[in-house]
Design goal:
Blueprint lengths: L1 H25 L2 E6 L2 E3 L3 E10 L4 E2 L6 E5 L4 E3 L3 E2 L4 E4 L3 E10 L3 E14 L4 E15 L1 H11 L4
Parallel strand pairs: 2-11
Antiparallel strand pairs: 1-3, 3-9, 4-10, 5-7, 5-10, 6-9, 8-9, 10-11
């Protein structure tokens, strides 16, 4: 009984420490996604911004990469983006703009893996973050119907 209580106590401490470490990691940076609605047959632009926090900054000399894996029904202009593809960059942030084209309606997501380095005065930390870009694809007919309804008929 005591052994079971001790094991449970150690497991709880380990899980709590892991969760605390994960929260500490999240406090160093955030990744902000802006995903548009896109109609079948059209192209829209999503963005992914890395923002350093708490005295950290995005290392301006280190590689920064974004690898994308779109599902069937979605396509992107480039599946591997690098520092040269950044739409905007500052000391505290880096933004990728991602043109997305769709051939199938519905809610879909693009798997993404971001790799970058954040630094502060005394240390740098390489980061690898896996995430999904949610994309809402509307039927092409819905867009055409909406345009038709907005015209004034005389």
């Amino acid at each position: 009984m005591i052994r079971r209580a001790l094991t449970l106590s150690l497991l709880t401490c380990t899980l709590t420490a892991g969760a605390t470490a994960a929260r500490a990691e999240e406090a160093l940076y955030e990744i902000v996604q802006k995903t548009p609605k896109v109609a079948v047959g059209a192209t829209a632009t999503a963005s992914l911004t890395i923002k350093a926090k708490s005295g950290w900054h995005v290392n301006p000399e280190a590689p920064i990469n974004l690898a994308l894996t779109p599902p069937a029904g979605l396509s992107v202009k480039k599946v591997k983006l690098t520092r040269a593809d950044l739409a905007a960059t500052t000391v505290d942030s880096a933004r990728f703009d991602i043109p997305i084209s769709a051939t199938e309606a519905g809610k879909q997501s693009i798997a993404a893996e971001a790799r970058f380095v954040i630094c502060q005065e005394q240390a740098c930390k390489p980061v690898k973050e896996t995430l999904a870009l949610a994309v809402d694809v509307t039927p092409a007919a819905a867009t055409a119907t909406a345009k038709h309804k907005s015209k004034k008929v005389e």
